[in-house]
């Protein structure tokens, strides 16, 4: 009887397990050919202790797939994050373009990939680097890729130099060091011999190159493109993405520490924001320039190392992009997403920018190699919603099964199909018609030789603290360069941009500032312009406000910002709730940090489930810090991790608030009262004033007033 009961119990457990499997999925594990697998834990052996057998096709099926799961990573932009969304057009652009997705009221699905340029796939998010900002529009007329960056200019003017730039910035070939960093000899050797990089270097050495969040950086098409209307008239255009949350960076010292605490900081920030329904948004802006005005500027409109100042040509906001869905499979979507600036739709065309012209080949070529052949457009993430119809068949990784015996054009066997759009009087893609009558030559125009005017414009448009950050970044980078001749060459280039900039960097490096460019630099510059240096034209503006990231009072937002609430035994729930409510009203998040995870009991007796501790988190992961009231002061005074938290937040120019009764901890720290440090006992309107300071992002003047290096 006992044996029968035991058997019955086991049968019941088996049925329960089977039911649970059915409820969760109901599908049996199979091979890639759909063959059900009986045992996925043991290879086929000759006896339980014998050798494994070569005929174990289930094991071979599993391992052969595993051995081939990795594909070549991107040569550049290897580390990326992606998200799905929608773009809605709000303006009427029919005067400028026939592109359907750019007509008022049209909504277009998009996939966006953000990335760093120099690092390998496993590098940190917080490297000082350019960020890729690429958008794939799934339009009704085919896919359009706006492949851009978070910086509107580039290091070089001609695509011929691109492999050299990347070889220089990548880890040095003898030891593959350093990773995801430009602070080494080969990069600055190249840059110091390429004066055309001067403008881009100002941007990369600024806080633009270390964003607070992917959701808080601008995007740019970089190049000048063309819009073409239904009548065939062209208009030059520069594309801008303006983040609704503002444009913000982090301190360099802070970025280095964030990399240690969470090298996936940007990835996680984007993912969590979308999962929590805080959908990131950008407004699409355009600078529209009539064809007849192409030569009316002090610079060349085709030069990718130049911007069009917004004071000269204002940015017109035309639509809004919202990212509202995370990828379900990182590899299938984010990793296999293939972007190509050559993928354009009717109504959009290229300019003769020599860097853009080269990218049109390079991106297509690299995707062919990386994704195993010419059929990468059939991968789900790359498929057009406008069905593909052509005579191209076969090739690696073909997924579509195309029927029929015709794979050529023209043909009669398929009635000439697929047919040319023109044969049926339909509108297809037509390149903008422009007259070309010239000679073949390897040459650049004279305006391309002005390398320093816009670099100076950028530097002089920054606030004093932003200029100090550029000086400190250059000093850090060049201090990592071992060859003194390279350092001197680069400081000579800085002298052409701004004397104060060069003097400060030279002083930090312990070298006198050369006033003239190095002869080797001049030699390379004269390869492109034999009469270099040429006298530059007078610039349209001396300063441009949009080039600074400084937030004007009353214009910022703290939406999605994270504020650390530092707790210990005796902290008051009422004190926590009062400030938490005010923050959440502004769209910010309060994160409770305590000595341990799990249940935390407040002074009043209520509890909270804690997921963040002093051991797992640091101030660099948060935007502001609050010490709630209660009876925790005695404990906090004995907590060195608490003091490390508030001291570092203060050092990084963040807003801090201390509830009534916590004044003693403030006295034991090196935090000093200023307009970003609030005491509930002294500041009557401390909550609203604290939020106002947070909207400015940082209290940057603290750097100079307190001599606090960040």
From TrEMBL:
Q: So which cofactors does this thing need?
A: heme
Q: Where is the Catalase core domain?
A: 30-417
E.C. no:
1.11.1.6
Task: Give the family from UniProt.
Answer: Belongs to the catalase family. HPII subfamily.
Q: Which reaction does it catalyse?
A: 2 H2O2 = O2 + 2 H2O
Under the heading CDD domains, the entry gives: GATase1_catalase
Basic and acidic residues compositional bias, start-end: 1-13
The cross-references to InterPro entries, in alphabetical order and at most eight, read: Catalase, Catalase_AS, Catalase_clade2, Catalase_clade2_helical, Catalase_core, Catalase_haem_BS, Catalase_immune_responsive, Catalase_large_C
Which SUPFAM superfamilies is this protein grouped with? Class I glutamine amidotransferase-like, Heme-dependent catalase-like
Function (record text): Decomposes hydrogen peroxide into water and oxygen; serves to protect cells from the toxic effects of hydrogen peroxide.
The residue ranges flagged as biased composition, category Polar residues, are: 14-34
Identify the keywords attached in UniProt to this record, alphabetized: Heme, Hydrogen peroxide, Iron, Metal-binding, Oxidoreductase, Peroxidase
Top-level class of the enzyme under EC nomenclature? oxidoreductase
Under the GO molecular function aspect, what terms does this record hold?
Answer: catalase activity
- What is the official name of this protein in its record? Catalase
Q: Name one Pfam family in it.
A: Catalase-rel
> Which stretches of sequence are listed as region Disordered?
1-34
């Amino acid at each position: 009887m006992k044996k029968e009961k035991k058997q019955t119990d086991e049968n019941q457990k088996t049925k329960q397990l089977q039911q649970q499997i059915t409820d969760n999925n109901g599908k049996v594990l199979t091979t890639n050919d759909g063959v059900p697998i009986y045992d996925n834990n043991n290879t086929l052996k000759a006896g339980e202790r014998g050798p494994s057998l070569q005929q174990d096709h289930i094991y071979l099926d599993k391992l052969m797939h595993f051995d081939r799961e990795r594909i070549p990573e991107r040569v550049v932009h290897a580390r990326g994050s992606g998200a799905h969304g929608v773009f809605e057009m709000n303006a009427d652009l029919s005067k400028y373009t026939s592109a359907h997705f750019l007509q008022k009221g049209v909504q277009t699905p998009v996939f966006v990939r953000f990335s760093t340029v120099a690092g390998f796939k496993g590098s940190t998010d917080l490297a000082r680097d350019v960020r890729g900002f690429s958008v794939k529009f799934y339009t009704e007329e085919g896919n359009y890729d706006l492949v851009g960056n978070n910086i509107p200019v580039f290091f070089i003017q001609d695509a011929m130099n691109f492999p050299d730039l990347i070889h220089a910035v990548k880890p040095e070939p003898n030891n593959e060091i350093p990773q995801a960093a430009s602070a080494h000899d080969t990069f600055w050797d190249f840059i110091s011999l390429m004066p055309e990089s001067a403008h881009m270097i100002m941007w990369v050495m600024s806080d633009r190159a270390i964003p607070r969040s992917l959701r808080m950086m601008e995007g740019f098409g970089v190049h000048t493109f063309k819009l073409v209307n239904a009548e065939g008239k062209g208009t030059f255009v520069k594309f801008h993405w303006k983040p609704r949350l503002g444009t913000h960076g982090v301190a360099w010292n802070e970025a280095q520490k964030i990399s240690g605490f969470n090298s996936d900081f940007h990835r996680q920030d984007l993912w969590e924001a979308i999962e929590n329904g805080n959908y990131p948004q950008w407004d699409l802006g355009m600078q529209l320039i009539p064809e007849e005005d192409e030569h009316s500027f002090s610079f060349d409109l085709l030069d990718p190392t130049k911007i069009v100042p917004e004071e000269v040509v204002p940015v017109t906001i035309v639509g809004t992009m919202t990212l509202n869905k995370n990828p379900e499979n990182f590899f299938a979507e984010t990793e296999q997403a293939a972007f190509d600036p050559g993928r354009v739709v009717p109504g959009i065309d290229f300019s003769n920018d020599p860097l853009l012209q080269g990218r049109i080949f390079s991106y297509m070529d690299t995707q062919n190699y990386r994704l195993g052949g010419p059929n990468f457009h059939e991968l789900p993430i790359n498929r057009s919603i406008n069905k593909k119809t052509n005579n191209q068949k076969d090739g690696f990784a073909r997924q579509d099964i195309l029927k029929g015996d015709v794979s050529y054009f023209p043909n009669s066997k398929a009635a000439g199909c697929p047919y040319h759009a023109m044969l049926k009087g339909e509108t297809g893609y037509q390149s903008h018609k422009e007259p070309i009558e010239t000679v073949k030559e390897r040459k650049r125009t004279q305006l391309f030789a002005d390398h320093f005017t816009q670099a100076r414009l950028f530097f002089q448009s920054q606030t004093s603290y932003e200029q100090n950050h550029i000086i400190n970044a250059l000093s850090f980078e060049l201090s990592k360069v071992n060859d003194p001749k390279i350092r001197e060459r680069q400081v000579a280039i800085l002298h052409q941009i701004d004397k104060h900039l060069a003097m400060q960097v030279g002083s930090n490096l312990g070298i006198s500032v050369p006033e003239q460019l190095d002869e080797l630099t001049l030699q390379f510059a004269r390869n492109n312009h034999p009469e270099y240096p040429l006298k530059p034209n007078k610039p349209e503006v001396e300063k441009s406000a949009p080039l600074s990231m400084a937030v004007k009072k009353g214009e910022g937002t703290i939406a999605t910002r994270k504020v650390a609430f530092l707790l210990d035994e005796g902290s008051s729930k009422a004190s926590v709730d009062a400030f938490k409510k005010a923050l959440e009203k502004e769209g910010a998040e309060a994160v409770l940090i305590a000595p341990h995870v799990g249940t935390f009991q407040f002074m009043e007796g209520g509890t909270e489930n804690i997921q963040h501790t002093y051991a797992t988190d640091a101030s660099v992961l948060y935007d502001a810090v609050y010490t709630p009231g209660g009876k925790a002061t005695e404990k906090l005074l004995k907590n060195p991790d608490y003091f490390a938290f508030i001291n570092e937040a203060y050092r990084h120019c963040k807003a801090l608030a201390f509830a009534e009764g916590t004044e003693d901890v403030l006295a034991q720290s090196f935090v000093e009262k200023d307009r970003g440090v609030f005491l509930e006992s002294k500041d009557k309107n401390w909550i609203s004033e604290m939020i106002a300071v947070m909207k400015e992002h940082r209290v940057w003047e603290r750097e100079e007033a307190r001599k606090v290096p960040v």
